[in-house]
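not sure who needs this but someone in the group chat was asking about Stage 0 sporulation protein A homolog from Clostridium amylolyticum so here u go. i didnt clean anything up, its just raw.
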Amino acid sequence: MNRLLLVEDDEPLALGIEFTLKDEGYEVFRASTASQGREWFLKEQFDLIILDVNLPDGNGYDICKEIREKSDVPIIFLTALDEEVNVVLGLEIGGDDYITKPFRVRELLSRIKALLRRNSKNTSTGNLLISGDISLDVSRALVKKNDEDIILTAQEYKLLLIFMSNAKNLMKRDEILSELLEGAEAFFDENTLSVYIKRIREKIEDNVKDPQYIVTQRGLGYKWNKDVVKESRS
């Protein structure tokens, strides 16, 4: 059973979400303040966290930053702040998805299921992808550069896997988004994709101004520009 942490101060909304999630078979832990959310996170292990941005004693952005220092658990922001700058900020600091209020409960469920699926679907194979000084262990969803761990969010990991699995192939932006979303409804657009690629480059490139792995083909798309060797691990 997947364990979810819901941090939301709107009591009626939180109760409705909690009821729906439990009805879908999830184990739900609920907090109405930032401090309660932090306490739950430090005490328990979660498969996914849903964060409101505006909370009585703080904001979800700060909680996300703190979580990212310790964990790559998928995070969905749930908020009434729908300006593009807020969406980009949420993604920049490590959020995996961003849903604005009002929203449909079915949409939330679909996003949750998609993130949980992406976070766990790579455990059945023993493939190791190696490219330059980057290695991606598909069986454990671990990424290393020069044998040092690289911490990626679920969406960043999924995007990196897409690029490395299509090495040397030019990928149009809509093709990348289609693979990343797997048909799920989402707000993602080309600007959001650019944010993700920028974040990944900051983690894997020696010089983000002269990327050697993920290169931009102006007006066309992106390409993983190094060969990838696939090894099988038992």
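also The first helix runs from residue 11 to 23. if thats useful
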